[in-house]
């Protein structure tokens, strides 16, 4: 009886420690890499913010005063929240449904950089 149980217990222990070591190993299913603001802007936001379509405030240095004013009056965080949740004709996440909050933030930062807003 004891002869049979002991090897079984050893096997169980071995199995456990195997599991432990594999959970420390890097997993293949890591988070998808965060996309840059420049990429997302060109893919989603420029449609409206490049041309002023749908009444969107245009991005660019000629609109520097507008964006600087927005940052000053509303604050950067508010602009990010508006971009995430949408406001009036601005669709939530600028229609980038799989964009993370951080990715939307990147896109807003990029828009402000393009506009040379402070
Ligand atoms: C379908 C057109 C459209 C798309 C696409 C779009 N926007 Fe907008 N956006 C608007 C409009 C219109 C407004 C103005 C909303 C208002 O204040 O009435 C706006 C406003 C904003 C504002 C706030 C400006 C302010 O005055 O407070 C930010 C920030 C913004 N958009 C970011 C983005 C980002 C980032 C993307 C891309 C991920 C994007 N938008 C894509 C139409 C669009």
UniProtKB/TrEMBL annotation:
Pfam families tied to this protein: Cytochrome_CBB3 (PF13442)
Coiled coil regions, renumbered to chain: none
Molecular function (Gene Ontology), one example: iron ion binding
Keyword Transport part of the UniProt annotation: yes
Domain Cytochrome c: 32-115
SUPFAM superfamilies on file: Cytochrome c
Name this polypeptide is given: Cytochrome c5
Naturally occurring in which organism (per UniProt): Alcanivorax nanhaiticus
């Amino acid at each position: 009886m004891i002869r049979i149980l002991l090897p079984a217990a050893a096997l169980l222990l071995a199995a456990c420690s195997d599991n432990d070591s594999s959970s420390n190993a890097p997993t293949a299913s890591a988070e998808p890499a965060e996309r840059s603001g420049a990429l997302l802007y060109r893919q989603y936001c420029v449609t409206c913010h490049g041309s002023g379509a749908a009444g969107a405030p245009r991005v660019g240095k000629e609109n520097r005063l507008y964006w600087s004013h927005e940052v000053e009056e509303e604050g950067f965080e508010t602009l990010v929240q508006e971009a995430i949740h949408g406001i009036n004709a601005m669709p939530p996440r600028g229609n980038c449904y799989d964009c993370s909050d951080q990715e939307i933030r990147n896109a807003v930062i990029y828009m402000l950089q393009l506009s040379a807003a402070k």
